[in-house]
Amino acid sequence: xxxxxxxxxxxxxxxxxxxxxxGVEFVQLRIKDxxxxxxxxxxxxxxxxxxxxxxTIVVNDYWRIAIDEGAQWIHLGQEDLAEADLAAIxxxxxxxxxxxxxHEELERALAADADYVALGPVYPTxxxxxxxHEQGLERVTEWKRRVGDRPxxxxxxxxxxxxxDALAAGADLVSVVTDITLNPDPEARVxxxxxxx
Length: 197
Prior knowledge:
Blueprint: E1 6-10, H1 13-19, E2 26-29, H2 36-53, E3 56-60, H3 63-69, E4 73-76, H4 78-83, H5 86-91, E5 95-100, H6 103-111, E6 116-119, H7 137-147, E7 152-155, H8 160-169, E8 173-176, H9 178-181, H10 186-196
Parallel strand pairs: 1-2, 1-8, 2-3, 3-4, 4-5, 5-6, 6-7, 7-8
């Protein structure tokens, strides 16, 4: 499976309305700490936007809503993976990306037959507090050797320059959040990502 190399993550459909018209093809909707009805509404709207722009939405965590609303992809963190009904997700035809941070989590993701494996944080990140320090490019190369043909996503502290290094080290796609969302001109930054990566 070949996925687009640029894989941004946004926390609302407002971001998608701004970024999908620029040519973003593969994007994660990651909503945290909102009422389920609001999440469902955002997922439904995001999927409609994606259809309009020929893009693919990856729904973070909310696998039941993703199934109900007809999503194609779900992304699960390790805690969510432990609680998810993978058989139901697969029966519904969804593809699954899974986060990993250490060898044990990688084994769990491979046992779950993840459609892509994410490794992070590759570089220091300000997005969230983690017990894991930066993984570095050597770990990207090791993970790619372990996952084989399965796409490997590098995440954490990414800029276009760092993304090129991660891709050279073995990543197939690169996720980014704050380099775009905290940029004074997010649209210009996305255009730069699309041009360079």
